[in-house]
Design a protein that fits this description.
Lambda Exonuclease, Chain A; Trna Endonuclease, Chain: A, domain 1; 19% strand
Length: 484
């Protein structure tokens, strides 16, 4: 499908061509009228021909601008196409309620979507607000595609020399940034002090530009020296300096054979370096083994440089399962007296206040499960334990082998063995079907948990317990079999 700037380019070119043809036709008529002796009429027609020519030139200039925008969108489309191999879905030139169209929509395998506004070099507040409205419209009107909403993105094709015309700032940003710059300057002066005081006997300052013209850190140091006290500071003129002797030993002659050996070694080194560089550029395959769908909450912040603005945007609400895991990570496990307060905070942060009763009920079910009570009774437990497992096979080097990383909800020590507890919020589980459901859907995940913790701790993992908090059931797996 043609992009909006490409269609705009063709419309402008057609108008420029029409105006140019009208200008040429009018000019020919002016010449005919002038040859017939009607000089005044010919003058009017000549002026009209010039005006139409200028009009055609203006439309041609606008068409060139549209062509630049079309090329930028084509470049973004070409780069986005590479994501399709990783399971992304792409849509381009989508119609919406506003002017123009939505340049691109990229939907990740995790069902998080990104509404992309393409700009060649510069952007301003209007473009930021436009893509924010597009993302909000998509989240409301395209729920079948975007189960978890859409995030706004402004894509700059030519990042070098980018021109940013205005930006969103959080309240109090200017005052805070002035204070931050003062802290940065104070830190630079402290580093200067540390560097100057490292000298054991003498500190030599090469003030080549002269004392009065010294600027920056050199100026800060020179202008604060006691120059009038000869006991502390001695000023040495350039004429007083003695240059060290230069070694005039003639260079050693190198044989042609030695040069050839050196060239061969360099070529071999370059070949090996190129091979290693290409291998390092190939991304490692990483699989996620975790009950959480999304690691971050709805707020996103990015600061690219010291001069950049803090951009804060709200994304889609967090899944209810993530809310349960966040609450279970923070509450007091022994009695859960702060369950309601922490659940309320998490649901407000994740924009799911309507699900607060369900979150509290599922967390209460987790606390009341036998495995969690056993962990509390023993007192030796850890929450949200990260792990990484390397799957090296077929002689592949470990540093290039696929990885599996994740987080274990709860681990506790029972004697010399570990027990893994994983909270599940699946809706399609009943007490009488929990065992079959765990074997079918979560057996592989349990094996990965056991392998990761065993490799990391050197201890044996006795079993993995899946707590289905909605069904009020828990299933114990050991070696891929259900333990009753």
């Amino acid at each position: 499908m043609l992009s909006y700037p490409r269609r705009q380019q063709y419309r402008r070119l057609s108008r420029a061509a029409a105006a140019a043809m009208a200008s040429g036709t009018t000019l020919l008529l002016a010449l005919v009228v002038a040859s017939a002796g009607a000089v005044s009429a010919a003058g009017v027609m000549l002026a009209l021909a010039v005006g139409l020519g200028l009009f055609a030139r203006q439309w041609l200039s606008l068409a060139r601008r549209s062509r630049v925008g079309a090329r930028s969108e084509n470049e973004v489309r070409r780069r986005l196409t590479e994501l399709e191999r990783e399971g992304w879905r792409l849509r381009h030139s989508l119609r919406w309620q506003g002017r123009g169209d939505i340049d691109s929509l990229a939907i990740a395998p995790t069902r998080v979507a990104f509404a992309i506004e393409t700009k060649t070099r510069s952007y301003d507040d209007r473009h930021l607000e436009r893509v924010r409205r597009q993302a909000a419209w998509l989240s409301r009107r395209r729920r079948r595609w975007l189960v978890r909403g859409a995030l706004p993105v402004v894509c700059l094709v030519r990042a070098r020399g980018v021109q940013q015309h205005g930006h969103f700032k959080t309240p109090g940003y200017d005052d805070a940034w002035e204070q931050e710059k003062a802290h940065i300057e104070a830190e630079r002066l402290r580093l200067l002090y540390v560097a100057a005081t490292r000298a054991r006997e003498h500190l030599i300052l090469p003030a080549v530009t002269g004392v009065l013209n010294a600027k920056g850190l050199l100026g800060e140091l020179v202008h604060n020296l006691p120059l009038d006290d000869p006991r502390l500071v001695r000023r040495v003129a350039q004429d007083e300096l003695t240059l060290p002797d230069v070694d005039h030993t003639p260079p050693t002659q190198v044989a042609e054979a030695d040069i050839a050996v050196g060239v061969t070694e360099r070529e071999q080194w370059l070949e090996q370096f190129t091979r290693l560089k290409r291998g390092a550029a190939v991304p490692r395959k990483i699989e996620i083994a975790s009950s959480r769908e999304r690691a971050n909450g709805p707020l996103a912040a990015e600061v690219a440089t010291f001069d950049a603005a803090l951009v804060i945007g709200d994304g889609p609400p967090i899944p209810i399962g993530d809310a349960v895991h966040m609450v279970m990570e923070r509450i007091t496990m022994s009695d859960g007296h702060d369950l309601e307060r922490i659940a309320d905070d998490v649901c407000k942060e994740g924009a799911i206040t309507g699900d607060l009763p369900d979150v509290i009920a599922m967390c209460r079910a987790c606390l009341d499960s036998p495995s969690v009570r056993r962990a509390i009774e023993l007192g030796s437990f850890w929450r949200e334990v990260p792990f990484v497992v390397t799957h090296a096979a077929n002689g592949d080097p470990p540093e290039r082998a696929p990885l599996t990383n994740g987080r274990v909800d709860l681990v506790y020590r029972d004697g010399n063995e570990l027990v893994v507890v994983d909270y599940k919020t699946d809706k399609d589980v009943q007490k009488d079907t929990a065992e079959q459901y765990a074997l079918k859907h979560h057996g592989g995940q349990g094996d990965v948990y056991s392998q990761g913790l065993a490799n990391a701790t050197g201890m044996q993992v006795r079993e993995v317990v899946f707590v289905y908090c909605k069904a009020g059931a828990e299933v114990r797996l050991r070696g891929g079999e259900v333990v009753r």
